[in-house]
Design a protein that fits this description.
Elements (H helix, E strand, L loop, with lengths): L2 E5 L3 E2 L7 E5 L2 E6 L11 E4 L3 E5 L1 E3 L20 H12 L4 H17 L2 E8 L9 H12 L2 E8 L18 H14 L9 E7 L7 H14 L3 E5 L3 H11 L3 H7 L7 E5 L5 H9 L3 E4 L1 H6 L7 H7 L3 E3 L12 H16 L7 H15 L16 E5 L11 H7 L7 E4 L2 E5 L2 E2 L4 H12 L4
Parallel strand pairs: 1-5, 2-6, 7-8, 8-9, 9-10, 11-12, 12-13, 13-14
Antiparallel strand pairs: 1-3, 3-4, 6-15, 15-16, 16-17, 17-18
């Protein structure tokens, strides 16, 4: 394979790579020290003198379909439960064409923000959308972005005391059969995987205990990850106490989910002891700072979780509670929110927030081959320029990306191939996508 030298970057988020890095066969083959040169001949050189190079960002929680209902008047200015009650009947109208466009737009938006791996939590299966996860895999492969597609599920509807309409839930047998099918046909284990599948019952208040337990068994059998919403609101804690006689973390243990293959979305309303328990069992937590702020859900105890041993990653969450799919915005919001919660400007740095969005997120997904710039890692890279007015006068290029508010990458590489060039996705008509997605979204007004 050709050897590509990314030469003399303006800055790079990796010690020992100040002179650049060499990419070969989809991996990082060499780090070049400042003033140095590659140890072996290269076939191509890209002069990165104007670029700040980050590891490709990893988004560990999203709901792609929600790009169709951003800033929806039925749901703005509401907290989680009333927000869900307002939107579920609207989401029940999801159709295959609109869904495909929602996925394409979400993945494109993520790529443009420097994201190279995205995890989606899809749990809505109205009539005609039984192949939703297959559609997501097709769209991801076409764009060349890595994905962890979580086969979500809900089997408690309004008639069972749950929140979703009857039309979007499935029964346990159907959920488990499709989960096994997807793990057999789509899931790629091991290093360099482009498509992986995880199992993701939506939340304690939308699935049965039996489905949680059987999903854990299936994940053990296929050696895949487990994902769910947990500890997002106090309403959820009260629901668990009333229905199961325990708090959500206790419930996780009861159903066999308290282990290192699990990562949780949100993890806000946790006690100190619960943080310690999650850390002891190496349960990952995806911090969703923007969504948590929009819905006024609270603050994720990131310091307590990391101190206890839990991997902490970042997610944009759904585009109806964010309302964008931009990982660099999530990085900036994570910095601001965590400084505010901890009451100290030095408690969280720009580099900490980038670490959560890269190496921390990769750990949540159970991957060691992505999320950092190191020899042997996958060549997933996000390159940003500082040529906008907002960056003029910035002296620390890496900190400037976060503090000055970078939102769009100039170049993005996944598995050694350029997927964004000059700020545009390769092989995609952006104007057409915007037009078609906008037309589809009008159905959900």
């Amino acid at each position: 394979m050709a050897r590509l030298f990314l030469k003399s970057p303006l800055a790079v988020h990796a010690p020992g790579a100040e002179g650049g890095l060499v990419v070969e066969d989809g991996r990082i083959a060499e780090l070049v020290a400042s003033g140095g040169a590659p140890a072996a001949p290269v076939d191509e050189t890209f002069d990165a003198f104007a670029h700040v190079v980050l590891p490709g960002l990893v988004n560990t929680h999203h709901h792609f379909y929600q790009t169709l209902t951003r800033a929806h008047p039925a749901a703005v200015d509401k907290e989680l439960f009333p927000w869900l009650q307002a939107l579920y009947p609207i989401w029940a109208r999801l159709d295959p064409h609109s869904f495909r466009l929602s996925v394409r737009l979400a993945l494109t938006e993520l790529l443009l923000s420097g994201c190279t791996t995205a995890a989606d939590h899809h749990y809505l299966f109205p009539q005609g959308l039984g192949d939703a996860i297959d559609v997501e895999a097709e769209e991801a492969r076409a764009l060349g972005i890595r994905v962890t597609l979580t086969r979500g599920s809900m089997n408690l509807s309004q008639k069972d005391g749950g929140l979703p309409p009857d039309s979007v839930v499935q029964d346990e047998d159907e959920i488990l059969a499709d989960s096994e099918r997807l793990l057999t046909t789509l899931h790629e284990p091991g290093e360099g995987a482009m498509v992986q599948v995880a199992l993701a019952p939506c939340s304690p208040f939308s699935v049965t205990k039996s489905l949680m337990e059987k999903s854990a068994g299936l994940a053990e059998r296929f050696d895949c990850r487990l994902h769910t919403h947990l500890g997002e609101t106090e309403d959820e804690n009260r629901f668990c106490e009333e229905r199961f006689g325990c708090r959500p973390v206790d419930y996780l243990e009861e159903v066999g989910w308290l282990g290192p293959r699990t990562w949780l979305a949100h993890g806000i309303h946790l006690t100190t002891e619960e943080c310690r328990r999650l850390g002891r069992h190496r349960v990952g937590v995806c911090h969703c700072p923007t969504s948590n702020a929009v819905l006024a859900s609270g603050f994720c105890p990131t310091a307590e979780l990391e101190a206890a041993g839990s991997p902490v990653g970042l997610g944009v969450d759904g585009s109806a509670s964010n309302d964008s799919s931009n990982m660099m915005e999530a990085v900036r919001h994570a910095l601001m929110v965590n400084r505010l919660r901890r009451g100290s400007a030095s408690a969280v740095t720009a580099r900490d927030a980038i670490r959560w969005a890269s190496e921390g997120s990769a750990a949540c997904l159970g991957r060691t081959d992505i999320g950092r710039i190191a020899v042997g890692s996958q060549a997933d890279l996000a390159l940003f320029t500082l040529d906008e007015l907002r960056f003029s006068g910035a002296h620390d290029p890496i900190a400037a990306l976060v503090l000055c508010g970078a939102t769009r990458a100039d170049r993005v590489m996944v598995a050694g191939r350029w997927r964004v060039v000059d700020g545009m996705p390769v092989g995609l008509d952006l104007a057409r996508l915007r037009r078609e997605h906008g037309e589809a979204a009008r159905r959900f007004a």
